[in-house]
Amino acid sequence: xxxxxxxxxxxxxxxxxxxxxxxxxxxxxxxxxxxxxxxxxxxxxxxxxxxxxxxxxxxxxxxxxxxxxxxxxxxxxxxxxxxxxxxxxxxxxxxxxxxxxxxxxxxxxxxxxxxxxxxxxxxxxxxxxxx
Length: 131
Prior knowledge:
Layout: H1 3-10, E1 16-19, H2 27-31, E2 49-53, E3 56-66, E4 69-77, H3 80-87, H4 113-130
Helix pairs in contact: 1-4, 3-4
């Protein structure tokens, strides 16, 4: 993959999600939610939040206030390969696993081997930039 292609890919904006927590609820309970309802999460209030890309956890952090907005102070993050694999919808040995995957059951199969080799090249380029 030419360096110009890698540079273009590295400029792409991707959705980054900070997950406070999650839980499963019966649909009937979800339909009963109203303003003022409280949804209790299994996560401790002082536990780190999940940093996610493409429904794959790539790190953790603590909530912080940045001016009048929320932010995330990153505590841990996977290596470049784990981050790139998350963009492709692939979990890997280097990726931080989520307690309960939120894929649609077939999303992981959406990336072909050729695409993964291109993602590997991007991960290598990111690692080289960080050195």
